[in-house]
């Protein structure tokens, strides 16, 4: 089932990608690279085709994952192709993934896949086959990760926010703005570290907000409601207590906004965000603080309903 998912995703954009295993991809590549009449340009084209071919493979296929030496050859051969037109920023992300030694175990594949996602995030150039988008590749990478299972490849909430951004179709700065706003809203309620476990949720949100702001006129200033989400996204959630406190601060920020229909970063209204924040606030370990917030939320909702029906 896992391989079928990868095949469906990749055959959709690559007419020459026929779900072959790693050994078959390597054999085809070596033959093209070592042909007596192969020019430097032809060798680079062959390498790009090799990377495209590998995208259709699965962990259990013959020769997969690549042996340590075979993965190393990709980087060696690329050294003569770094300026080739096929090697866009997105194609280089593909190269980085397949040159990484993943032979140890499924966890090694997962680690490389998470780095691949982060490389693709925000990219707009086409892939090695000169037609696939970063969004298509990212969708395939996510399928590869989930196929490994949660034991070998757990995807924490912050990492999922990053995956969602990498999967977004970006053809303009306006699209990029939307993707960044969606990520910040997603991070608003996330707790964990990112796909790179050394990166905190707070640092990821700060970097994303900076990237969003850098778009300037292509990304309108956030509403007050969206700014509450951004502030929460940047908050420290290293412990359950900190998360609970952060949700309380978010609730206070949102309740200070008097227009219930004002939208947040993704178009969700202030009122809906208030309700969602209340539902995510744990009773423990916040203790009475968490209970007080829930009581306040309940009282507010009852008051609103009373105004409507009385």
Identify the overall geometry: elongated
Span between N and C termini?
56 Å
Structural class: mainly alpha
Oligomeric nature of the chains: single chain
Spans of 5+ residues with little confidence (pLDDT < 50)? 4-18, 289-310
Strand runs, count: 0
Q: How many domains, in number, for the residues?
A: 2
Let me know the largest β-sheet. none
Radius of gyration: 23 Å
> Approximately how much helix is present in the residues?
55-70%
Helix count, DSSP H or I runs of 4 or more residues: 14
Instruction: Report the sheet-strand fraction.
Output: under 5%
Task: Round the mean pLDDT to the nearest integer and report it.
Answer: 87
N-to-C series of helices and strands: HHHHHHHHHHHHHH
Walk me through what this model shows.
- This protein has 310 residues and is mainly alpha-helical.
- The chain folds into two domains: 1-150, no CATH class; 156-310, no CATH class.
- Helices cover 60% and strands 0% of the residues.
- It is built from 14 helices and no strands.
- The longest helix has 22 residues, at 288-309.
- The termini are far apart.
